[in-house]
Structure formats: structure tokens, C-alpha cells
Specification:
Elements lengths: L6 H9 L5 H19 L2 E4 L1 H17 L9 E5 L26 H8 L3 E6 L33 H8 L5 E6 L5 H7 L2 E4 L19 E6 L2 H11 L17 H4 L8 E5 L9 H16 L3 E5 L7 H16 L18 H12 L2 H14 L4 H25 L2 E5 L15 H5 L6 H6 L3 E9 L2 E8 L5 H14 L21
Parallel strand pairs: 2-3, 7-8, 7-9
Antiparallel strand pairs: 1-3, 4-6, 5-6, 5-10, 9-11, 10-11
The structure holds glutamine.
Glutamine binds next to loops.
Length: about 500
């Protein structure tokens, strides 16, 4: 293993004084400067502030008061509010918005001593699967720069894949952590709905949105989640359940783990180049002592259709706050109040966001509410019940994260339905509020393949343990794109 390939090893390197946090931060900033023109992973780089927090971290390290995350550089998805720093959510609407407060997880990771390098590019308001809806231009996949990194957390995933930082925060409403993690060959975890506070995370579809993290390894995800998870009274859906010791839970033995293979995930549309590595991953878990049985969730194929009613409905309501009055983009010289609303919104939102607002408004309208929104909520209940039944028989559900590897930039932008089908395997977990992960399990013609694990509510520890056991047996998570040094401390890359 490369010496400093992970957050865990960097943390050790800092304590052993092999380098300082300032040195590590300088190396990361140099990598960012070098790759930004090509990859466009970041919307904002906060170099000066990063070096100042790194210097403070070095003092803590010297004083012996450092924690496991102290001094480690990281990146926040630009959906998380950061005090005094531009927070755009990938939109023209917020292209001038400097947040007056920190999101909950921003505070948590700051308190843990992490060094923020900047804000990651993303699909506008987290709506997308390719990072092509960003007002700030698309992100390119470091494995093949003619291809997309996935979305909406495309900047976060590409940044970790290019080893600009060992971790980046992300959010997942229908797959936006797992799908880009899979397409970029990195590890991503979407925790249980309510496990991590949504306070200060710009809302897309509030009943589905969940903050999480993209890392190199499951062990790193455990370390980060430890700092992020926990009750927050400022988010009314935050759940007051004690946070386990995830690092300790990583060591759970796999013997006897009951894995359910999702029949519905291995049908039409799944490319053989993805199926092969996913089946091999299942064989690895079996060798490690897990049992594998097939499980069917008959309502799961309805999840994409259900999502594209529920998510736009909530988005249309959430995005009503952007009206040009209180914050964000305001049109020039409005004639009257109505003109202000109309033009500010017309200019501030991109095409995909407008499509969602129109769809959402339609499905909530008096004449169509029962036929669409109410029906979608009923189907959502069926999907949740399917999962519940499955988890009476198995501990973890496993399947592919995406049907195909990373596709070309521009390939799907003219066909929203094809784009939406990218999340066919990920949306179910959001519908039921379940924790889910994607970890790298192979390459298809040189492009990363992800395997997905879904567990019952609050089973993050078990998912992380299964992923960790796999990553001890394999090195897919440590592979990097051509020209990218896996060693974070090595400085410039490419
Ligand atoms: N790709 C899905 C969408 O466009 C999911 C996005 C997300 O999880 N934020 O809505």
C-alpha cells in the first residue's frame, strides 16, 4: 500500500511528524492548482484560510491535543453553508451568496481540526447525475477526462479520485454520493436519514436529502462519520440515537453475515462489464464467511418513477425561497415585485432546475395531487415495506451501484429520462431512508466499477465493516487514475 494513500495514514503521518499540516495543505493546494483547469472540481478555493487552519492544527498536534482528524485537508460540497465563504449550490441563483453561518457538519469537522481547502463543484441544487447542470461548468472524470464524474457530488468524487484531498463531504437525495463514488472509483457512504444533521445543507427534497462523505476507504469513512453523526436539535428530522464507535465496529467479523443479492438489480440494462466485478465481490465476501442468497424486492423497479414525483414536488416547494428578495441573484432594474420574482428566477435557475420546479408544481396542483403525488407516496410506502421484509431475512443487500461505468460528457444531456435511469439502483435506499455505501470493486475497460451495500436503519457500522473487510482483501480502492500519485503527501500530481 502506498504510504500516505488514506486519511488514516495521513493522520498517523501528522502525529509522527513526518510532515506538518501546513506542508500537507500546501501539497494539496498545489495539486488543486495543477488539476483545476482540466478537472474543474472546485468552485471556490480557500487557500489562505486553509493555511491558517493548518497552522492552528500544527499547534494542536505539537501540544498533544489533536484528534484523529486534526490537520487533515478536506473539501466541502458547495451545498453546505460555510461562514464567510461563497456557497453557490452550483447555481447562478446563489453565485453571489456568502453564507453567514456554518452547516452542522461544517462546524463538526472544523471542531475536529480538519482543514477546508475549498468548495466542490456539483450539479445545480444537486439535481443531476453527471455534474453537467452546474452553472460553473462540468467536472471531468480523472479516469478519463472525456467522461463525466457522475453527480450531483461530481466535484467531491473527482477530487478524491484525483487525490486532491483524502475526503470530501457530499449529499445524497437519490444517489448523489454513491453514483459519483462508483464512477470515480472511490468510497461513498449515505448514512441513515436523520443520522447526520441537514442543518445548513441547502434543501433539495427534504424527505430524501442526506449528508454523507466520499473517501478513499471504508476505514476513512468510519473516522469521518464519527465526527459528523449525532443528534442536532436544529434539524427536526435529526434522530436522537447514540452514535456507535464506528472504528470499533469496523472490526466486526464477517462470519455469518447474511448477504441478500437483489434480483431486481441484475436484470435488463445492467452491463456485463459491471455485473462481472460485482459478482466477484460477492464471491470475496463469501470467502470471508458471509452467506449469499437471492432476495426479491418487487416494488423496487418503481423507485425511479416514484422519485421523479416526490423529489420535484419537494424541490418546487423548497426552491420557492429563491425569489430575488432575501438572498441570491436579483435581476437588474425590476419594474415591480412580480417582475422581480419572475426575472430573478428565470435568470437564476438553469434548465434542469426549472424542469423540476415545473414537474413538482404540476404533481402538487389541485387537479393532479391524488393521481401523482399521493400515489407516489403510496408506492414509496410499498418500497419501504419491501426493504423491511428483506431485512427480516438478510443483514445487507448487495448489488451494483450503477448500470454502466462513466459515460461521455454530453452523451445524455439531451435526454433527461436516460439521465434519470442512472440512479435506478440507488434511489430505493433514499425512499426508505436506509444507509447505503458504494465501494470500488473493479475496472471495466479502465473505468471504475462500484458495488453497493444497503442495510437496515442505523446499520452504518455493519456496512462499514463489510466494506472494510473487502478492502483488506482487495486493492481496488487504492487504485488511482493514470498520472495521479496515490500518495497525498507527495505533492503535485499529473
Ligand atoms: N441524480 C438524481 C437527481 O438528479 C439524484 C440527485 C441527488 O441525489 N442529489 O435528482
Amino acid at each position: 500500500m502506498t504510504a500516505d494513500a488514506t486519511l488514516a495514514s495521513l493522520s498517523a503521518g501528522l502525529r509522527e511528524r513526518r510532515y506538518s499540516s501546513v506542508e500537507l495543505t500546501q501539497a494539496a493546494l498545489a495539486r488543486i492548482a495543477r488539476t483545476q483547469p482540466e478537472l474543474n472540481t472546485l468552485i471556490t478555493v480557500t487557500g489562505e484560510a486553509a493555511l491558517a487552519s493548518a497552522a492552528a492544527a500544527d499547534q494542536q498536534l505539537a501540544a498533544g491535543t489533536a484528534g484523529p482528524l486534526t490537520g487533515v485537508p478536506m473539501i466541502h460540497k458547495d451545498i453546505f453553508c460555510t461562514t464567510g465563504v461563497l456557497t453557490t449550490c452550483g447555481s447562478r441563483m446563489l453565485s453571489n451568496f456568502v453564507s453567514p453561518y456554518d452547516a452542522h457538519i461544517v462546524t463538526r469537522l472544523k471542531e475536529a481540526g480538519m482543514v477546508m481547502l475549498g468548495k466542490a463543484n456539483m450539479d445545480e441544487f444537486a439535481m443531476g447525475s453527471s455534474n453537467e447542470t452546474s452553472y460553473f461548468g462540468p467536472v471531468r472524470n480523472p479516469w478519463d477526462t472525456t467522461r463525466v464524474p457522475g453527480g450531483s457530488s461530481g466535484g467531491s468524487a473527482a477530487a478524491v479520485a484525483a487525490r486532491l484531498a483524502p475526503l470530501a463531504t457530499a449529499s445524497d437525495t437519490g444517489g448523489s454520493i454513491r453514483q459519483p463514488a462508483a464512477l470515480c472509483g472511490v468510497t461513498g457512504i449515505k448514512p441513515t436519514y436523520g443520522r447526520v444533521s441537514r442543518y445548513g445543507m441547502i434543501a433539495f427534497a427534504s424527505s430524501l436529502d442526506q449528508a454523507g462523505v466520499i473517501t478513499v476507504s471504508a476505514e476513512d469513512a468510519a473516522l469521518t462519520l464519527q465526527a459528523m453523526a449525532g443528534f442536532d436539535p436544529r434539524d427536526s428530522t435529526s434522530v436522537d440515537v447514540p452514535v456507535p464507535d464506528y472504528a470499533a465496529e469496523l472490526q466486526q467479523p464477517l462470519a455469518g453475515l447474511r448477504i441478500g443479492v437483489l434480483r431486481e438489480f441484475f436484470g435488463e440494462g445492467l452491463q456485463p462489464a459491471i455485473e462481472g466485478p460485482v459478482r466477484e465481490a460477492l464471491a470475496t465476501w463469501q470467502r470471508l464467511g458471509a452467506t449469499v442468497t437471492e432476495v426479491s424486492l418487487p416494488s423496487l423497479p418503481l423507485s425511479v418513477a416514484t422519485y421523479y414525483v416526490v423529489a420535484p414536488a419537494e424541490a418546487s416547494s423548497n426552491l420557492a425561497r429563491f425569489d430575488g428578495v432575501r438572498f441570491g441573484h436579483r435581476c437588474d432594474k425590476p419594474r415591480d415585485l412580480l417582475d422581480l420574482y419572475k426575472r430573478s428566477r428565470a435568470e437564476g435557475f438553469g434548465a434542469e432546475v426549472k424542469r423540476r420546479i415545473i414537474t413538482g408544481t404540476y404533481v402538487l396542483s389541485a387537479g393532479y395531487f391524488d393521481a401523482y403525488y399521493l400515489k407516489a407516496q403510496r408506492v414509496r410506502a410499498l418500497i419501504t415495506a419491501d426493504f423491511k421484509r428483506a431485512f427480516a431475512e438478510v443483514d445487507v443487500l448487495v448489488g451494483p451501484t450503477t448500470p454502466t461505468p462513466a459515460f461521455g460528457l454530453g452523451d445524455k444531456t439531451s435526454d433527461p429520462i436516460t439521465m434519470y435511469l442512472n440512479d435506478i439502483y440507488t434511489i430505493g435506499a433514499n425512499m426508505a431512508g436506509l444507509p447505503a455505501m458504494s465501494i470500488p470493486c473493479g475496472l471495466a475497460d479502465g473505468l471504475p466499477v462500484g458495488v453497493q451495500l444497503i442495510g437496515p436503519h442505523f446499520s452504518e457500522g455493519r456496512l462499514l465493516a463489510a466494506a472494510h473487510a473487502f478492502q483488506r482483501e482487495t486493492d481496488w480502492h487504492l487504485r488511482t487514475p493514470a498520472g495521479v500519485s496515490a500518495d497525498f503527501a507527495a505533492g503535485e500530481t499529473r
